[in-house]
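Q: Structure for this?
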Amino acid sequence: MNLVLIGAPTRRLGALVAATLLFAACGQGAADDAARPPLRWGGDAEGGAPFVEADPADPARVRGFDVEIAEMIGRGLGREPRFVQVGWASIPQSVDRGDVEAGMSGIEDGPGLRARFAVSLPYFEFQEVLAVRPADRGRFRTLADLAGRRVGTLGATMAYDILLGEQKRSGLVPVSYDDDIHPYQDLVAGRVDAVLLDNVIADRSLRRTGGFVIQPAPVATGHYVALFSRANAALRDSANQVLRERMRDGSLEQTFRRWEVWSDAQAAYFQRVLAQSPRADPGAASSDRLLRAYLPALARAAGVTLVLSLLAMALAVAVGAAVAAGRVYGPPLVRGALTVYVEVVRGTPVLLQLFVIYYGLAGVVRLPAFAAAVIGLGLNYAAYESEIYRAALMAIPRPQLEAARTLGLSEGQVLRLVRGPQALRLALAPMTNDFVALLKDSSLVSVITVVELTKQTAIWATNVGSWVVPGIVCALFYLVLSLPLSRFAHRLERRWSHA
Amino acid sequence: MSGALSIHGLHAARGGRPVLRGVELDVAPGEVCALMGVSGAGKSTVLRAVAALEPFTAGSIVAGGFELRPGPLPRESRLRGLRSKVGMVFQAHSLFEHLTALQNVTLAPVHALGWTRPKADEAAMELLAALGVAARAGAYPRQLSGGEAQRVAIARALAPGPMVLLMDEPTSALDPARRGALGETLRALARQGRALLVATHDIDFAHDFADRVAVLSEGALVEAGPARQVLEHPTHPGTRELLRHTDGDDRAVDRGSLR
């Protein structure tokens, strides 16, 4: 639960490549070591210490308590552990697909996960703790004190679910992040009033950046587990035996001490686990129930996507038209400045622009996330719109414009009555295209804490450990949003086709 | 001689290169004047200077009582007096494609002259009827034939009631039968008191329908006079070159019997 999820697709691709290479390597080694293939396990090195991090002495290697536990399990099974880099949110899917046999990286136990996976003995107990600014130490002690306030956390986590529950109760406003660094930065900057996350992450952020305090009373208790596919329950059972053994002989304690996450509470938890006989999976949550539980949230998120896209497109059309007019009619200086704007915006990733507007400009103007999303997407698409309008304006034959002038129409009337209407007809198809693209690009704004359709789907998918149903439902939502627009544009085009 | 259109000592340059060198030309009300010359002789430049679409460097133009001076083009708001007096019919593709034939004709009266819509519609239908395209009033430009589109363009140029009508190569897209019909139309327009200046390199057309012919060669007016006299007994080498050039194989469109 410690991750920076920026650029997830690239990393997912990287993981895929890594897994493919690994398969190839396995195929080669199979002849001489068929009895004991390596234990492929997936984790996210971007999550960092104490879970999994690149070894500063040898960045090709990883270290962390999850790494040591994977080594313990591997040794116990007589198999050499082999690390595969997987983006944190994709670990369950990687296990499901068989890219890796086990997933570990501060993965939280939960009923959604248990419904789909064979889950190991919970090997670590953590507390969800509340971080607040020092000045608020006295007034924000519990979630109940934060009614109507913004509270940040990682999306798709137990902490996020807790905040959603609290939202219904007290009107607290959950703010979802894709990584665990920005919530604390925004807390210090005053964008959120508290952060709810695992004590492991909170302690680490306190050491690294500081500027906040952690309330002593935990909000909830959770556990980290290793993930196996259901078909691989036997491997899970063997791993559980190893884990239980390492709890008993103190090597797990040593690992946790080494990574400075050991506590008396952890010792008490180990005692409780060892006192119990190996337990069966607790009752799993059915996916039907989860579908019913998530549909309203998904519908709301679709609303966010639609409103965000409409506002961003309105901004893009207005700014784009102004930029196009400036580039066609303006003096050379204006034309030059607008050309620079268009080239810079088109030549850099929209993700980067969103980051700059939301985090980079935070020192100058502290925009609310939704406003930053509208402005970021709107100004980005304005560059593309302006090129469409400019090309459309330039496509109107010159004799028409000159004929309009000789008829006595003013420059403004020529634009409004002759050039504009025809340019609009030419621009309609590419504009429709752009709006549909914008509808989908709006999923990028989850990096600046706006929970829209794709983010909400990812949260759901992570909780149930599968993308099949959430993916289909999400796709249907997008189609329902985009198809009417395409049809409308198509009809308009047909009506205009004679002219 | 001072007519509806008077051009004196007109010089124009394009990219530093002179394209008109002291053109003198008058067109009286009721007269059809053919402005002739090979491609690049400067015919279009004269028309565009009169229509205030291009600046000129020296000389003067008085069109419909409005005087244009050398130098940069005046702002459109200062050209109002010219715009309602001088109409122009372009070679091709000048109809507003998003508007019907009728809307093309009424656009200027309604928006530039402030007529009411019923008044503009009525006047436009009269013009379209006079030009024989009233039945096509509701059609869009793409639905019109070349000849129909040209007549709609003429109706549009006539709608504000100009005294001077400029036409650029009106016969270039017409078959011989249509050329005859167009010539009769132009004669009728002139009879109503307008001055017509028609840029063309169509010898037959000029011969049959123009009162006068003015020949441009390399930006200079080399010969002018009654159409038959100039075309049947050319005196200037530039005119002979025009006749030879146009009568040759390279201008199939314009070939015909030269009586």
